[in-house]
Amino acid sequence: MEGFEQCFLTGTAAEVTPVSEIGPYKFSVGEITKTLMEDYMSAVQPKRKAA
Questions:
Q1: Which residue from 10, 7, 5 is spatially nearest to 43, judged by alpha carbons?
Q2: How far apart are alpha carbons 9 and 22 in whole angstroms?
Q3: Residue 27's pLDDT is what?
């Protein structure tokens, strides 16, 4: 884990969940994690029809 900048969990219940720390290691929510979260939500949210 040393040298890691970002960490996240994935799963059907967790979706894409950032991890802020594991023991002495601390992580930030960076661009890769944000992009994965946004892309996941776009893929699983129902598409709305135009009114």
A1: 10
A2: 12
A3: 93
Specify the pLDDT at position 51. Answer: 66
> Per-residue pLDDT tens for 1-51?
778 899 999 988 889 999 999 999 999 999 999 999 999 999 988 777 776
Q: Is the dihedral of CA 45, 43, 33, 23 positive or negative?
A: positive
Q: What is the 3-state secondary structure (H, E, C) of 1-51?
A: CCCCCCCEEEECCCEEEECCEECCEECCCCHHHHHHHHHHHHHHCCCCCCC
* Cβ neighbours around 6 below 10 Å, total: 15
